[in-house]
Amino acid sequence: MSMNADIWKDLIIKNNSKIVFLIMDGLGGLPMPGGDKTELETARTPNLDKFAAEGISGLLDPVYPGFTPGSGPAHLALFGYEPVDFNIGRGVLSALGVDFELTGRDVAARLNFCTIDQDGKVTDRRAGRISTDKNKELCEKIRRNVKLSGEVEYFLETESEHRAVLVLRGDGLGGKINDTDPQETGKKPFDPEGEDDASRNAAKYVADFLKQVKELLKNDHPANFILARGFAKHEQFPSMEKRYGLRSVAIAQYPMYRGLARLVGMTVPPVPADFDEMWNQLKNNYDKYDFFFVHFKKTDSYGEDGNFDAKVKMIETVDGWSAKLRELNPDVLVVTGDHSTPALLKTHSWHPVPALLWSKKMYARTDSVTEFGESACRRGNLGRMPMKNILLIAMANAERFKKFGA
Amino acid sequence: MSMNADIWKDLIIKNNSKIVFLIMDGLGGLPMPGGDKTELETARTPNLDKFAAEGISGLLDPVYPGFTPGSGPAHLALFGYEPVDFNIGRGVLSALGVDFELTGRDVAARLNFCTIDQDGKVTDRRAGRISTDKNKELCEKIRRNVKLSGEVEYFLETESEHRAVLVLRGDGLGGKINDTDPQETGKKPFDPEGEDDASRNAAKYVADFLKQVKELLKNDHPANFILARGFAKHEQFPSMEKRYGLRSVAIAQYPMYRGLARLVGMTVPPVPADFDEMWNQLKNNYDKYDFFFVHFKKTDSYGEDGNFDAKVKMIETVDGWSAKLRELNPDVLVVTGDHSTPALLKTHSWHPVPALLWSKKMYARTDSVTEFGESACRRGNLGRMPMKNILLIAMANAERFKKFGA
Q1: Is domain A5-86+238-397 classified as CATH 3.40.720.10?
Q2: Which of A1, A157, A334, B322 has the most CB within a 10 Å radius?
Q3: How many whole angstroms separate alpha carbon A362 and alpha carbon B38?
Q4: Class for domain A93-233, per CATH?
Q5: Mean of the pLDDT values across residues A12-32?
Q6: ipTM score of the complex?
Q7: Are B23 and B337 in contact (CB under 8 A)?
């Protein structure tokens, strides 16, 4: 069975309950060589342990066992969206990642500055990984000099190093355009071609854009051209309010996660400067919303850096922060990550993510787990299950579902 | 993947093995405030504990994690039917609930006696919850006075209080008819309208029936009209014998469960007067069938009453009863519930249901669980899984499946 919103839409109850999702990005980990504890198991987390002891724990698979998810699908799973059905185009995800507010008339693509030789063949797909500053300078130069004809606007935004984002905005633009990136050196970039009328229309503008950029940068080095991939038309997903009856707000510092929250219709207050401001945003919005997505990024960043100790410390910081949640006393609290980022691997991984669900009314049928960690979670009553289930279980504990069938 | 009978139909082996499902309705529970044990964990269950110690245990999700199932979908899951695909119309379930034997020519609906004012607007959707006796009296009055023209018969059966069941029987009747219940007071009931030709045909008879009832009851009070909802055409599901090669018998005291068993083609002997007669029915039918559905209701009823202690006692009674199963020595015994009904919540709930599977030949790969209870089950080898799997696992342990693929 593929579970979808059609099945539960008539079961939704609206009430005054509050559901808080406290998300540590890349939370799941692995022991380092010679060790036997993950980052989370190493961290001193008295507050999260108490929530775990009072609630139920488990291990969540963001997409499917064995699959390493990107941030997009992992967060969609947290929000209860089947991450395989709700596919976010790479270009769109990149635009979200630079905090670009997409509209329904936009087609986005991920760009790389690259180096081509006199025959037009790619010699370096990343232009020697130019600096972010250089990238900004080039983008500014392009914006000043490259103009599209007709009714189509473009936006060009620096991501970092050689990476940038292109957004075309206009009526009747399609996103089914091939990558121009040949994926290897010694080959010429492909011409952009559309699969259908709307995409052919958009591809025409992309071709014009690329032609002008090539001319403009011909004397630059090493970045003298760009490669595009992941073209995608932006489409708003059905909102959290529509799918679940949950008025939702996102408290997050990083653009990607703010963008993902917007994609599912959450309200996104201004960027909080620090963790205190995150707390204030949560508190100040508490009466106005039903669902609170609170996102801490640095657990993932330290994992990506391979910095086990810094990830441990960051988890301890969030543990301290989480103690204040007792003041708000939400109906349901879920603490988990979007995916695993073990410092050992320095990248996202396929490992299921530790999770705890705490319910104010103790409806969660507590288990014997008394600490928040991967091995302990495995023994908990949540079991091992798809991440997309956790929102439904949280809603059940918040008494937001009627009975299915008589 | 959606698992269905097409996948296993060529794998079925018929043999002389016996599979017993001992079902305690609403078995799963929660600790009461201040306690730390559920009803099942509180009950003294030496016999079930022994089966658990010798077999494997787990937690089953009737429909989907977070979903609270009605009795219909929950039992279909126990019988291995995907409960979202095999949807039972509410009218049909109500008819099953009053032990009405439906045929393939029947359309059923759930009725409420209600109160309307002089303008025909509903002032009480439940007519002050009239007594069951009053309901019976009104049904008798209607049966005597209301006649349908043409080739269509109707049956009217009291359920309880203000609730009754209407069945139309005839050729070419469809069940796609809107609810006439406006769901709020101050509004007139809706007219019945059919979605397709067959349903329009049936709606015509419903309209005639309602018109006559309105005239007949105009001087009654408070019940002076009826509201109808959940119209559904009765359709027989593929039988247990067809799907699994299992000749199946249901030993159950309550109409709803007898009806559900009939819906999947089980033989249903006369209502057993008590638990001893349930035992005799099991024993006397033992040679004639392969699959035995034995249903105890009161665990659920006491849960619905919020009577923790009575539910505990009822579980202990069933535990005593289960000791006799050693005499029959079935090939496979499954003990579980159809859903959870914690006394704390006084209603069905979303919590997964404790289950044990015991195999005579000890093929079940026993685990470390030595007691039958929610938290212990979680640590068992069945893990946490959809309830619809349990029948297939039981069949495997009864050596009733060939290898899938070479």
Answers
A1: yes
A2: A334
A3: 12
A4: alpha beta
A5: 98
A6: 0.86
A7: yes
